[in-house]
Amino acid sequence: MTDPTVKIQAFLLRGVRDGVFSGAQAAWCGEADITTKMVNVGYTSKIKKFTISSKTLFDISSLTKLFVASALLRLVDKGAFDLSARLHTLLPLGSAQGGATLAELLAHEARFQAWLPLFEQIAVSERGTASARDKIIARALSAEANAAPTNTAVYSDLGYIALTRLLEAVSQCPLDQLVREDVTGPLGLSSVQFRPHDGGSKIDSPIPLDIAATEYCPWRKKTLQGEVHDDNAWSMGGVSGHAGLFATASDVAHFGAAWLQALSGSQWLSQHLAQKAVRSRASGRGLGWDTKSPVGSSAGSNLSGQAFGHLGFTGCSLWVDPERRLSIALSTNRVHFGRNNLKIRHFRPAFHDLLASFY
């Protein structure tokens, strides 16, 4: 098999030149690979040009949902609750969302609204505190349901903010500790962490060099580097079920490989739960995972129809192909040039097509 590293590096460098991002990591591995192949290009910032290394952390934004969903599935494996449990037995919710099951919550079918600027309801001086976190979660729980019909997925940050409260209530430990003890710790993913520098929600903290910068925030009045980009997550103190994790692409790829192993019967997660999680439901999504659309998928055209994955708003992604036994992580900071920089939409499927052509 030809080593794709040189061509992948050239392709990523083109992304830097074309203004898709200021820096990127690509990492890929198979189910049984001992080492991950990795390519790093560009800089952590367009101004302070610290070179991207294999240890550079990226804000993986909504890929956080995969790790949090995995923590819930681990609790299901331990008998804490069943995926068919109704949310009203676990959370103070109205009848619309409360009648949904845990599985429907994971699959974005529980009728939570997609997104609300809940942070705007919190005074700037209070954002990032425990009281702000409680208020944001309470408002996510009390928000009016969306009007989507049954078995329809409406991708929802609010549902995973609600999941924050559910997991902490059931496990009796903070969400970051739960993710560390049930997911990143057992899998040896040492880079994956919430609040990577000085708590992640302190406005006057020094800027770390080896974390990719995201976007200029008008109310934080600076370009964000080491603080979660998502405004609701930041206002919750940097830890939430919908966003907040930072990681290297290597560890994200290893996380995908752990799911391949679970599908083959590893003991980290039961095989039947893993298979259920990555299977496309009537809504087109899995449990936490997205599944590959027949046309126009960010996974490109070459990965199989069985592929499952997820995207992050900041420019990160993970796609896993059970047929190729291949896990592919791409970490970029495409929002560094503004959240309306959408060049990643064409770049990402072309990247996956190029890499998959070697396997």
Layout of helices and strands:
Layout: H1 5-17, E1 23-30, E2 37-42, E3 58-59, H2 64-77, H3 95-98, H4 102-106, H5 130-142, H6 157-171, H7 175-187, E4 193-194, E5 216-217, E6 222-223, H8 231-235, E7 245-247, H9 249-263, H10 271-278, E8 290-291, E9 308-311, E10 317-321, E11 326-332, H11 344-356
Antiparallel strand pairs: 1-2, 1-11, 3-7, 4-7, 5-6, 8-9, 9-10, 10-11
Helix pairs in contact: 1-11, 2-6, 2-7, 5-6
Short structural description:
The protein is built from eleven helices and eleven strands.
Could you characterize what this model shows?
The chain has about 350 residues and is of the alpha+beta class. It has 2 domains: about 5-65 and about 190-355, 3-Layer(aba) Sandwich (Beta-lactamase); about 65-185, Beta-lactamase (3-Layer(aba) Sandwich), CATH 3.40.710. Helices cover about 35% and strands about 10% of the residues. The protein has helices at about 5-15, 65-75, 95-100, 100-105, 130-140, 155-170, 175-185, 230-235, 250-265, 270-280, 345-355; strands at about 25-30, 35-40, 60, 195, 215, 220-225, 245, 290, 310, 315-320, 325-330. The strands form 3 sheets. The chain has a 6-stranded antiparallel beta sheet with strand order 2-1-11-10-9-8, with helices on both faces. A 3-stranded antiparallel beta sheet has the order 3-7-4. Strands 5-6 form a two-stranded antiparallel ribbon. β5 and β6 (about 220-225) form a beta hairpin. α1 (about 5-15) runs antiparallel to α11 and α2 packs parallel to α6. The longest helix is centred in the middle third of the chain and has 15 residues, at about 155-170.
